[in-house]
């Protein structure tokens, strides 16, 4: 506003922008971009699936012929040649595991997945059955509190608990693994907590662990491909949830994830 010496308003300068005309265009453009993004994501997931699937056969052939070569000529190899053969076999095996992991990651977005009523306790029991050998070999103890029924894809929920429990056993401390699973009900979501007594995770690396093929330790220290938590994150976020970790080195970890509440 422009004022005179007495403080009275004499005039003013303003700017008006008419948004009424372009707003429908903005909505249409936003919808178009969203559809393009959806199509691009679908194409990327399809590419990952097809590429991984098609890579398996030639890799099986490489692995098979390496085995035949080793069997036929092992007596002719010196120590250096044996090391070369072992490196080649290990590389082929590692690539085969990575391809399987990429396939598993791409299948999280499979259109056949669907929301059904799943008792969380049943999903954990199935995950434990899949991990029975690993649990027994490490003398792991797994306890559960009162857990709810949730609306989720059953296979996805089993996979989430299986990956979290498997990680807790893999990254164990000197003590036998102790894993406690609990749930807290909030107004619009269930929060699950998977607590362990393992080696813990430095706070500066706690976002990195949810990215695909990210590892904090060498394969010689701890086996694995570094994709399990990425699969958990993708699956949980697909159904409207969140996942995070609270941890510190040598103090164990608490993995938290949420699942939206539905009327069941």
Which CATH top level class of the largest domain fits? Alpha Beta
Q: Which parts are unreliable, with pLDDT below 50 for 5 consecutive residues or more?
A: none
Helices, by number, come to 6
Query: What spatial order of strands do you see in the largest sheet?
Result: 4-6-7-9-8
Structural class label = alpha+beta
Helix content: 40-55%
Overall outline:
extended
The CATH topology of the largest domain turns out to be: Heat Shock Protein 90
Distance between the termini: 60 Å
The name of the CATH superfamily of the largest domain reads Histidine kinase-like ATPase, C-terminal domain
What report would you give on this structure?
The chain is an alpha+beta fold. 47% of the residues lie in helices and 17% in strands. Helix 3 (120-130) packs across helix 5 (154-170) and helix 5 runs antiparallel to helix 6.
């Amino acid at each position: 506003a422009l004022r005179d010496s007495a403080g009275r308003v004499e005039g003013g300068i303003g700017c008006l922008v008419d948004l009424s005309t372009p707003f429908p265009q903005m909505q249409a453009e936003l919808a178009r971009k969203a559809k393009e993004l959806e199509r691009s994501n679908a194409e990327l997931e399809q590419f990952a699936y097809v590429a991984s699937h098609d890579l398996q056969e030639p890799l099986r052939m490489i692995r098979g012929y390496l085995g035949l070569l080793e069997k036929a000529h092992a007596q002719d190899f010196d120590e250096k040649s044996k090391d070369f053969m072992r490196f080649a076999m290990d590389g082929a095996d590692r690539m085969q595991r990575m391809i399987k992991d990429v396939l598993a990651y791409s299948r999280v977005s499979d259109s056949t997945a669907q929301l059904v009523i799943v008792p969380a306790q049943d999903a954990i029991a199935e995950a434990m059955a899949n991990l029975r050998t690993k649990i027994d070999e490490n003398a792991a103890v797994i306890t559960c509190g009162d857990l709810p029924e949730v609306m989720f894809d059953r296979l996805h929920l089993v996979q989430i608990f299986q990956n979290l429990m498997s990680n807790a056993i893999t990254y164990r401390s000197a003590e036998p693994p102790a894993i406690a699973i609990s749930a807290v009900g909030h107004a619009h979501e269930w929060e699950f907590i998977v607590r362990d007594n393992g080696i813990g995770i430095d706070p500066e690396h706690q976002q990195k662990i949810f990215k695909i093929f990210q590892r904090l330790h060498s394969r010689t220290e701890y086996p694995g491909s570094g994709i399990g938590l990425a699969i958990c994150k993708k699956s949980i976020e697909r159904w409207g949830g969140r996942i995070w970790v609270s941890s510190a080195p040598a103090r164990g970890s608490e993995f938290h994830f949420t699942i939206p509440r539905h009327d069941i």
